[in-house]
Write a sequence for this structure.
């Protein structure tokens, strides 16, 4: 676990995942800086954990954003100045959402973004144009940086662990929603393997302008919570 200069509140969860089982946002308010870690039961690919992104991670993140497959879907500026501009507030605890560095056996391998949709009005507007957004719903975005680690189930493990932790970290969240551009088949298949269900589709502004506007919306509800999305 990496130490931080400000308030540190370690939290560790052990989560068992059964086999088979994504935008940069402006700063809004300051939140306490905490350390989070989630350890997933060891399978062949090792232990997954995460912690908040820190300033020292930004050069590495810039490199990740240059990787061709990441660049294809995230379409983010890759200069260090641009990464510091768009992620720096998060490293200082000035974002309502979370930018989390994902680790595999302690080695950085990806990024997970998580936030309450209502904390980002543009995201709320975009979702609401396609689906009714329940109050307190959380959204996720994610990437795996190393091409050699893709296609091995790590994406679905990461998503499933993030969802499981969300019920603890966001006590008022009734659901997790994820919008994914329809062309990104690997991403929405990972969501399905993690247990999310496709509940809507419609036009949303894509991160990469070469893509069609069609997006799929995936959803999973807090265990035991009633959901109009799945009610027959």
């Amino acid at each position: 676990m990496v130490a931080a200069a400000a308030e540190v509140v370690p939290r560790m969860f052990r989560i068992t995942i059964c086999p088979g089982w994504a935008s940069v946002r402006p700063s809004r308010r300051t939140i306490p800086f905490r350390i989070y870690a989630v350890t997933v039961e060891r399978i062949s690919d090792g232990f997954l954990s995460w912690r908040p992104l820190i300033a020292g991670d930004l050069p590495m993140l810039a490199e990740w954003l240059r990787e061709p497959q990441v660049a294809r879907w995230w379409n983010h500026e890759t200069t260090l100045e641009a990464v510091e501009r768009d992620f720096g507030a998060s490293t200082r605890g000035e974002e309502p959402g979370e930018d989390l560095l994902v680790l595999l056996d302690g080695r950085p391998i990806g990024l997970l973004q998580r936030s309450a949709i209502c904390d980002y009005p543009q995201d709320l507007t975009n979702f609401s144009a396609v689906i009714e957004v329940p109050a307190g719903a959380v959204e996720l975005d994610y990437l795996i940086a190393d091409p050699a680690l893709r296609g091995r189930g790590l994406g679905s493990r990461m998503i499933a662990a993030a969802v499981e932790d969300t019920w603890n970290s966001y006590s008022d969240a009734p659901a997790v929603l994820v919008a994914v551009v329809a062309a990104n088949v690997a991403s929405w298949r990972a969501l399905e393997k993690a247990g999310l269900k496709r509940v809507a589709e419609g036009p949303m502004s894509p991160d990469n302008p070469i893509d069609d506007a069609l997006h799929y919306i995936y959803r999973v509800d807090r265990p035991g919570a009633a959901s109009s999305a799945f009610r027959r």
In short: The chain has six helices and nine strands. The beta strands are 12-15, 37-40, 48-52, 98-104, 107-116, 138-144, 175-181, 197-203, 214-221.
